[in-house]
Amino acid sequence: MSNSTLEATKSGTKKSDAETGAGGIAVDRLRSLVERIERLEEERKALGSDIKDIYAEAKSAGFDVVVIRQLIKIRKREPAEVEEEETLLDIYRRALGM
């Protein structure tokens, strides 16, 4: 018994070849998923370009982009985690005489 026949038996309805395609794949669902991913990839690309432009704007305004990137990473983390890391960093600096 083929996959599409087995599917038809399980669901009680027989799907057409246009709906399932080769190998019993739901073609419309697959196409929809792929197109959504492609659309989001394009949006991500556009957002990446926008972010790059903002960093360039920050640099032209005299800001240190490396420091801005560090600030953004810190802001994503939990405050307690950041505080613990800063405390350890301070302890290590004093231990090294910095």
Automatic annotation (TrEMBL):
Keywords: Coiled coil. The keyword Coiled coil applies. GO terms for molecular function: DNA binding. It comes from the Bacteria. Residues 27-97 form the GapR-like DNA-binding domain. InterPro entries: GapR-like_DNA-bd. Residues 1-21 are annotated as: Disordered. The keyword tRNA processing does not apply. Residues 30-57 form a coiled coil. Residues 1-11 have a biased composition (Polar residues). NCBIfam families: PRK13694.1. This is GapR-like DNA-binding domain-containing protein. It comes from Rhodopila globiformis.
